[in-house]
Amino acid sequence: MAASPDVENRVEDASRTRSREVATQVLLAGSALLVLAVPFLGASPFFITLLTEALIFGIWAMSLDLLVGYTGLVSFGHAASFGFATYAAGIFAMNISADFFLATIVAILTAAAVAFLTGLVVTRLSGIAFAILTLCICQVLFQISVVWRSFTGGLDGLIGVPLPTLFGREVEPGEEFYLLTAATLIICYLLLRRVVESPFGKTLLAIRANEDRAAAIGIDVRRHKLVILILSWMTGGVAGSLFVFLKAGANPMTLYWIESGNILAITILGGIGTLFGPIVGAIGFIFIRDQVTTMYRAWQFSFGLAFVLAVLFMPSGIAGIAERIWRRLWPARSS
Amino acid sequence: MAGAFVVEGLHKSFGALHAVNDVSLDIEAGQVHALIGPNGAGKTTLFNCITGFLRPDAGRVLLNGNDVTHLPSHKLVKSGIVRTFQITQVFGELSARENVELAARSREGLNFDFFRKASACREAREDAEESLEVVGLIEKAHLRPEELGHGDKRVLEVAIGLALNPEVLLLDEPTAGMSRTETERIARLVRQIAERTSVLLVEHDTEVVLSISDQITVMTQGRVIAQGPPGQISQDPQVQDAYLGAVEVGED
User: Fold this and answer.
1) Which residue has the higher pLDDT, B140 or B87?
2) pLDDT tens-digit readout, A55-72
3) In 3-state terms, what secondary structure has residue B28?
4) Which of A198, A210, A218 has the CB atom closest to B77's CB atom?
5) Is B195 within 8 Å of B202 (Cβ atoms)?
6) Euclidean distance between CA atoms A24 and A22, whole angstroms
7) In terms of CB atoms within 10 Å, which of A6, A113, A266, B92 comes out highest?
């Protein structure tokens, strides 16, 4: 007698979960199509450029979500993954080849190498110590980019990065570059989705919950942290490569700690541990910043205030609220 | 599958405190060996030294004759030495089944598999179900730890340990905070799993210890004061003095 409602509940649970999963897939596919369709819906060039930047930030924020959301490693130096890659791709494009694939591979490999070196130190840590040390390392890279003028152009940064080419053809700024960015975002999302749902991805969850317990079931905690750090930076590197071509230049300020703070806020506001949320957070951030900066100067203040309120009242971010609504829309099916 | 497990002259000090002082254990394959002693006797420190969470200052740990003393925790697990924790430390946001599956995938060497779906690892799923079956949690496999009773949570720890296919399973106070019935359930379970793995357990409940152990080691202040089968230990005047008597007084 006691077992039967329990069993019923479970069956109901399963069917509800299944129909919601299907609905989620449809939603994701729809969003992907919408993102790809934007240029054909008569959007203004200004809007397209702004959205391009937002999607680049979306890739970058997803890469941080791997650390903060999935592994519980709050990095306060994630500007490094992005900023360093902008230089790598930019210098490569200016001196060797503007091929988008090659430049992006250079950016990814550079990011991976720096992540590996950083990881040798920071993977021993977690919590506050991890946050502070990543912040320090990022500031060191910022200083290098400022001081090493012959290579980085100092405070002026890189100027005159050429337009990227794809299969030997120049990618036009505007709609074409937007489509390249959108396609890259979708590919990154699908790949990372795979990773977080893989056995490896689940070990990250264990590490986030309790490192000792994770070690006690045979997980090599330091190695897993190192691998996810490298993967995260590689993804950040992809965003960096797109960004240097969008701006036709690189600037040391992309390595500055404020950028690390911004991307962390974007990721948390969007909803950590979801991959999708940070993209939404990035789009929101870029568009709101654009609106607010033209209205008044203290926009950082309003962003900070919004962040504090959001953390207080919606700790699971925009994605968390969306999920709650989503669950309401797809309630239990009683058949 | 059960392995022979030997600890030789293990030492661990924290400053002037000899938390573990020249402790030796010899566990034959398939035996249940209990470690008892008052609080602060060094039992958990010994566990931590054996399982790689602390570095012993001296001594050796041997599994089937192989020296595994300084292996890090995750490698010890691979070699067959698996532990549970005194305070339940299961992964709270995963269901009981997913908790055990995580361990099963780890044992199958899938920790670095990036492209398969975790939920599609069928072998791990079957292994996890088998472990849950053994401990009697299969009916509650879909529940999250917070929805399980305290006894079930402790049992889930054992299921996670079993899914790692251990040669030696170290249980740190498996009956801590349990009711009499739950304690009996764990006692039966320990006897049952001894068919597939040697067991070393830290335990406070003397009744349980005397009924399920093949061998007992008694520690006080970091030292072994007695070692032998239950019949011999319960008669040992030194043990009664140091430990058993004290517990009886405390319980009355």
Assistant:
1) B140
2) 999 999 999 999 999 999
3) coil
4) A218
5) no
6) 5
7) A266
Closest CA to B152 of B142, B140, B169: B140
Q: Return d(Cα B172, Cα B251) in angstroms, integer.
A: 21
Give which of B66, B74, B96, B78 is closest to B6, Cα–Cα. B66
Indicate the pLDDT class of residue B212, thresholds 50, 70 and 90. Answer: very high
Candidate from A198, A203, A218 with C-beta closest to B164: A218
Give A-chain residues touching B72 at CB under 8 angstroms: 215, 220
ipTM confidence: 0.88
Does A5 touch chain B if contact means CB atoms closer than 8 Å? no
Taking the CA of residue A237 and the nearest CA in chain B, the distance in Å comes to: 20
User: Among B84, B94, B111, whose Cβ lies nearest the Cβ of A199?
Assistant: B111
The secondary element (H helix, E strand) that includes residue B18 is strand B17-27
* Nearest Cα to Cα of residue B62 among B78, B54, B50: B50
Lowest mean pLDDT among A77-86, A150-159, B6-15, B22-31: A150-159
C-alpha triplet B192, B197, B203: angle, nearest 5°: 70
Region of poorest pLDDT, from A126-135, A150-159, B52-61, B75-84: A150-159
Query: Which chain B residue's Cα is nearest to A208?
Result: B91
Q: In A, residues 206-245, which contact B (CB 8 Å cutoff)?
A: 206, 209-210, 212-213, 215-221, 224, 227
Residue range A292-317: average pLDDT? Answer: 78
Please tell me which of A244-248, A291-295, B183-187, B218-222 the model is most confident about, judged by mean pLDDT.
Answer: A244-248
Among A178-192, B51-65, B225-239, which range has the highest average pLDDT? A178-192
Residues 8-27, chain A: which have Cβ within 8 Å of B?
Answer: 10, 13
Task: Sort out which chain B residues have CB atoms less than 8 A from A216's CB and list them.
Answer: 51, 73, 77, 82-85
Contacts of B105 in chain A (CB under 8 A): 199, 202
Best probe of the A interface among B48, B84, B98, B102, by most A CBs < 10 A, is B102
Which 8-state DSSP code applies to residue A99?
B
* pLDDT tens-digit readout, A122-159: 999 988 999 999 999 999 999 999 998 888 888 888 99
Rounded CA Rg of chain B: 18
Three-state secondary-structure class, residue A260 = helix
Domains and CATH numbers, chain B: 1-80+166-252 (3.40.50.300), 92-165 (no CATH)
Own/partner pairs, B146-153, CB within 8 angstroms, 24+ separation: B146/B92, B148/B96, B150/B88, B150/B177, B150/B178, B150/B182, B151/B178, B151/B179, B151/B182, B151/B185, B151/B186, B152/B96, B153/B88, B153/B90
Interchain pair B118, A199: CB under 8 A? yes
Chain A residues lying within 8 Å of B83, measured CB to CB: 216
